[in-house]
Amino acid sequence: MGFLRDVFSEKSLNYLMKIHEKLRHYERQSPTPVLHSAAGLVEDVIEELQTAPVNNEEKELLQLLSTPHLRAMLVVHDTVAQKNFDPVLPPLPDNFDDDFDEESVKIVRLVKNKEPL
Fold first, then answer.
1. From CA 104, how far away is CA 98, in angstroms rounded?
2. Nearest Cα residue to 39 out of 70, 64, 63, 61
3. What are φ and ψ of residue 62, in 5° steps?
4. What pLDDT sits at residue 3?
5. Which residue has the higher pLDDT, 3 or 60?
6. Model's pTM, two decimal places?
7. Which of 63, 85, 96, 98 has a Cα-to-Cα distance from 33 of 20 to 30 A?
8. Closest by alpha carbon to 39, among 78, 81, 69?
9. Dihedral in degrees, nearest 10, Cα atoms 19, 23, 28, 30
């Protein structure tokens, strides 16, 4: 009993439970993204900022939008927004069936009594 009391009184477990509840609440809401191509929008903004004279705030915005961390975050956002989680596989060749001969495969396991192989 003392062990369970100690485990449940840990602050880290309490924080994890709060995070879990927040994520479950967020999942139940099933939010939809406002934009599916945030990276493309940022590219357009960068292009506009580069073609016109800019003040200090616009220069700072241009620097922030050009950082690799922000760009990576936007790519991840777009991937999640488009629900594009599966890897893209190359198409199968047209002559796939011709190249594939059926062969039997045997799985073999070697066992030697009380001695490493």
1. 17
2. 70
3. -60, -40
4. 83
5. 60
6. 0.48
7. 63
8. 78
9. 150
